[in-house]
Amino acid sequence: PGSVGVVSGQGCSAPRALEPVGMRVIHDYQGVSIRLTDERLAHILEHPEMEGLAGAIEETLGHPEKVVESLSDPEARLYYRF
């Protein structure tokens, strides 16, 4: 039903609801540490397609179906699950 996209780079963290904690560190499928701030989480969840999918963020980072380099920021990776 749709896809979940997560951007890592400047601050993006088992499916469960994510609760505000200031900042959390999540490890992606390669063990890379990704910082997810409350501000970034709120921004992600503002997107209508992300409604009710906060718990999918960690799953997407840990088990992406596709990872691509951002065209606008070569330091950022885009993680997707469909």
Key words describing this protein structure:
82 residues; alpha+beta; 18% helix; three-stranded antiparallel sheet; two-stranded antiparallel sheet
In short:
With 82 residues, the chain is of the alpha+beta class.
Largest sheet: 3 strands, antiparallel
Task: Detail the poorly predicted runs.
Answer: 10-15
Q: Trace the largest sheet across and list its strands.
A: 1-5-4
The portion of residues forming beta strands comes to 25-35%
N-to-C CA distance: 7 Å
CA-based shape: globular
Averaged pLDDT: 82
Helix content: 10-25%
Number of DSSP helical runs: 2
Radius of gyration, whole Å: 12 Å
Total number of beta strands = 5
Which H/E pattern describes the elements?
Answer: EEEHHEE
Given helix and strand content, the structural type is alpha+beta
What does this structure look like?
The protein is built from two helices and five strands. The strands form two sheets. It has a three-stranded antiparallel sheet, with helices on one face. The protein has a two-stranded antiparallel sheet with strand order 2-3. A hairpin with a 5-residue loop joins β2 and β3. The chain is α+β, with helices and mostly antiparallel strands. The protein is 18% helix and 29% strand.
